[in-house]
Amino acid sequence: MASLTDELQQLLQQFTQQLDAATNEQAVRKVYADFGGANGAIRLKQKELLKSAPNAEKRSIGQATNEILQKVDAAFEGALKRLGDAAAAKDLERSVDVTLPGRAHRLGHLHPITLARREIEAIFAQIGFTVAVGPQVETDFHNFEALAMPKDHPARDMQDTFYVENSPDVVLRTHTSPVQIRTMLAQKPPVRIIVPGTVYRRDDDATHSPMFNQVEGLCVDEGISFGDLKGVLLHFVRRLLGDDMGIRLRPSFFPFTEPSAELDISCVFCRGKGCRTCKGTGFIEIGGAGMVDPEVFRHVGYDSEKYTGFAFGWGIDRMAMLKYGVDNITHFFDGDVRFARQFR
Ligand code: 2NL
């Protein structure tokens, strides 16, 4: 029996050594499991001793071995506490300066075309126009046919169109006019809408992008005149660019309006005095306008004896370039937030 107790003492010594060497909780728990746990060496030894001992000695052996196991438990708890105290002390050493200012988030910025579009929409909203939108992939009917541009019409040459492969009647809309067509097909006059949106043409240079943004307007009711068109356009241009602005309507041609006009506005660089940009004329071309052609009304089922209307259109991108003084349209599509952030 003496030698067996020696063996237990030896195991206790090994346990103590390994426990002292353990530097983290996981290691401490492993050492405890190896010796003091349910299948640990010391507990197995205790069972072995009790089993082989004569009945008279079982009680004293049980007592002696339990004392050793109590030491093991106490040493294990002590080791865990030591590690916990060290971690807590280290945590307390950490210093946090609560007076430091917070870190600012980097903000994005609305795109200048979005800013310009919203401003245009707001000005027209104040004079009774609502915003209408529609699909960017259109049918030949809505994009051309209903706008008095049948398949053999030379006016189609004015627009280089993207067609959907193997679908000769499906196009990327070349203007936002198909939305006006859809609106007129869906409702009776009076109609007062403004239609902003992305359109597509096969063009690509410093002032043309194959994808660009337009806004068109349409007003249809009884007794609408060319004078109403002039008044609305002048009001709009003055609200957007200043009360000293003027407009000029020059006779022109569009298949969907009659009469038609090119729309010029005072040069925003010289305010109409004449400069290099406006080639001394004091005006720059911005878009077009006119009275809705009866042929368009026929396609949407409006009675052109009863109703008249005006329509107009221009490029939002070009308007934003003029408003913000941007010299190349591609800046708008580079996706550089430093560019966008310059505009308020
Ligand atoms: C331009 C000229 C214009 C229209 C667009 C229009 C739409 C319908 C009926 C009649 Cl549904 N007209 N739109 C009319 C005149 C000019 O745009 O230079 N745009 C960039």
Structure notes:
The model has no long low-confidence stretch (mean pLDDT 90). The longest helix is centred in the first third of the chain and has 39 residues, at 55-93. The termini are far apart. The strands form two sheets. A seven-stranded mixed beta sheet has the order 1-5-6-10-9-8-7, sandwiched between helices. A three-stranded antiparallel beta sheet has the order 2-4-3. Helix 1 (2-21) packs antiparallel against helix 2, helix 1 (2-21) runs antiparallel to helix 3 and helix 5 (112-125) crosses helix 10. The chain has helices spanning 2-21, 25-35, 41-52, 55-93, 112-125, 140-143, 177-186, 226-241, 294-300, 316-324, 337-340, and strands spanning 130-131, 137-139, 163-164, 167-172, 191-200, 211-221, 247-254, 257-266, 283-292, 308-315. Strand 3 and strand 4 (167-172) form a beta hairpin. By secondary structure, the protein is α+β, with helices and mostly antiparallel strands. The structure holds 2-{3-[(4-chloropyridin-2-yl)amino]phenoxy}-N-methylacetamide.
